[in-house]
Amino acid sequence: MLSETVRIVGAGIAGLTVALALRRRGFEVSIIERLPQFAPVGAGTLLAPNAVQLLGCVGVSLQSLGHPITNLRVRDQHGRTLQELDLTRIPVHFGTALAFDRIELHNVLLASLPPTLVRLGTPYVPTSAAGEHTVIGADGIYSTVREAKVGPVPVCYSGYTCWRARFVRIPGSPKLLRIGAEQHV
Questions:
Q1: Of 38, 67, 80, 117, which is least surrounded by CB within 10 A?
Q2: Whole-angstrom Cα distance, residue 64 to residue 32?
Q3: Packing angle between helix 102-111 and helix 13-24, nearest 10 degrees?
Q4: DSSP-derived secondary structure letter, 101
């Protein structure tokens, strides 16, 4: 291991992934997480083939997990297709896009690290002491690391909206789900 310890603030998907990558390169890492315990957060997530490959490069195999996604379709409020992406056109050597419950992906990443590496219930407290660890902020949109290092940054709308949901498809059911009055997924 290299002599400097890298402190990662946040034990979500990003924090755990960067910990795996740094350890693979010989860095000693520590992860602190302000939450006292892990709980399911969010719904599902989709990993593009390059993200699945990246996790493979840090020692995490996902091929037996998740659900392969072959196409994505964005529809308007009337059910008309606005955009469609056929993922089967991606060359096979790039891999497959996979959909997961976020907690399933989180648990796989967490299990790939030594259990003592993550300290739960430990908020980030900035210090100006000499020899402070290199710190990587992976603590989300309201990052305490970012605020400590660059000052307050107001959260502002970027112009993009992400709709997150999780659905279980019943075998034999139509691919287009209807939820509520005229709501299509």
A1: 80
A2: 29
A3: 30
A4: E
